[in-house]
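Lab meeting, action items carried over

1. Structure of the two-component assembly. Owner: GW. Status: complete.
Input record:
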Amino acid sequence: MSDVERIPPRSGTAFKVPAGATLTVIDPEGCQVADLLAFSSEDVNEVISSGRTLDYAETIALTTGHVLYSNRSRPMLTIIDDTVGCHDFLLTPCSVDTFLHFYPDKPVHRGCFGNLAEALEPYGVAPDRIPVAFNCFMNVPVDAQTGKLSVLPPVSKPGDRISFQAEMDLVIGLTACSAYASNGGSFRPIDYQIEFLGSDDIPIGAPSNA
Amino acid sequence: MSDVERIPPRSGTAFKVPAGATLTVIDPEGCQVADLLAFSSEDVNEVISSGRTLDYAETIALTTGHVLYSNRSRPMLTIIDDTVGCHDFLLTPCSVDTFLHFYPDKPVHRGCFGNLAEALEPYGVAPDRIPVAFNCFMNVPVDAQTGKLSVLPPVSKPGDRISFQAEMDLVIGLTACSAYASNGGSFRPIDYQIEFLGSDDIPIGAPSNA
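Predicted assembly:
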């Protein structure tokens, strides 16, 4: 199992996760969104797809047991644990344009979009290839009568987490989100941890030499 | 104004629409979905984005007055008329994989995805670049309590239509949708018409030589 890595507030990173490994995204202080993107590491033209995923899941409320699909209809990530049960898969990462639109009186920030673009560039992912993200812990209720979307503070508490099993070799982009509304008005870090198959960890229930 | 063009059942097409022109998508027989994609004709890496659009509109119920944005946060199409008021911008075009998933007992069809991929190939759009479509007349209610999506028959009646003003020079992909659930179980054509700026049509209220 890898060490717990920390993404500082309003920043992002990218890293590889091999097929079979588990990626856990942790909200260490609570009320903080993490935008997650996934690309096939064999061909980054294969990318996480909100439209395929929502179509197959037949719900916008994705949680344990749901599969996140690629634009080629292949499983990329399966949600295997989720202590929150409230995430968003409708909206694109916040960006300079988002800040100009929603926060004209506040300093402009490159947002998750800019953070992801920089982090993913070494993997050959161009900014135009950044799609709708799976926004861990983001609280976006939809009014069934009017269709209106609201962006409310996350309900995640300190230490809440969501775990994904990688269904193919992946490049992951992950942020600590930079937008005011998404995070209840302030900005906190995001932690993540990767558990590799065949690591030295002793599986639960396995014989121990201790 | 162009002639009314007909898209036969379960097929698709692509064409250019210049900035300022009006594209009207018509459901001639009623209860038929049309998947619509838009790309900048100057650079097809700029593409219609559900995530940007829903974020800026703050609703999933898009109708007259709403703007459909690109992945670069630029307006692509403004909805200027809409006799239905019920469309979908959550789901990707139906495909071979969609048919295998939802209709395992029925003949597999390449679906809107295959139809769009073929029609857009001459414009330099690769299949992996096909995103969530703006699905004209598609009826996808969301249950606010559970998040569950349903695909119900369209409420569009014969002759119902939606009109868009092009906000940039565009390549449009458009289908008569091939999926059973989207269209109430059978398949009908879709019509469309383009009204160009500076065409020979006499604007309403303009002086006539007749």
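2. GW to write a short summary for the group page. Key points so far: Confidence is low (pLDDT under 50) at residues 202-210 of chain B. Chain B is about 10% helix and 25% strand.
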